[in-house]
Specification:
This protein is mainly alpha-helical and 152 residues long. Helix content is 66%, strand content 0%.
Length: 152
């Protein structure tokens, strides 16, 4: 990887600010709005996600055709394909249950702090504990897979 452009981190920060402001402005940082969506009572979140998907789709289609390298990092564009396996299904199911129980996705949980929802800290703590436990489980599994058979 080549050196990053000096504006890379400030632009990431500004993008996060815009994202967080948009979530707060659209009320998607409020768990009750997300739960109403999950219960098929309010479809506003569908329009927010749809708008984001359209912008992302256009950017992912046009930018690699217009530029050969990413402007801020100099990296070449490429697709990172992940296999659709058991880990994806189980991880997605766990993520979905957590989203349904807390009523908010991880990005909106942080934005929810900005609109005064301090109780969301419980959900954020749960996300960190879950990520930590998954990391411990993965490292133990990698260690046990690397240990040769009969090396007791």
């Amino acid at each position: 990887m080549t050196g990053r452009h000096p504006l890379f981190m400030p632009l990431i920060f500004v993008g996060g600010l815009i994202f967080g402001f948009g979530l707060g402005f659209s009320h998607m940082a409020r768990p009750e709005v997300v739960l109403n969506f999950l219960q098929f009572e309010d479809f506003g979140l569908l329009f927010v996600m749809g708008g984001a998907a359209v912008v992302t789709g256009i950017a992912f289609t046009l930018v690699p055709r217009l530029l050969d390298r990413a402007p801020l990092t100099g990296d070449t564009y490429g697709r990172r394909l992940k296999p659709f396996d058991r880990n994806v299904l189980v991880g997605g199911a766990i993520f979905g249950v957590g989203w349904g129980l807390s009523g908010i996705c991880p990005g909106a949980a942080y934005a929810s702090l900005g609109v005064g929802n301090v109780t969301i800290l419980w959900a954020i703590a749960g996300m960190f504990v879950g990520a930590y436990l998954q990391g411990v489980w993965r490292s133990q599994r990698a260690t046990s897979d690397a240990t040769p058979a009969g090396a007791d």
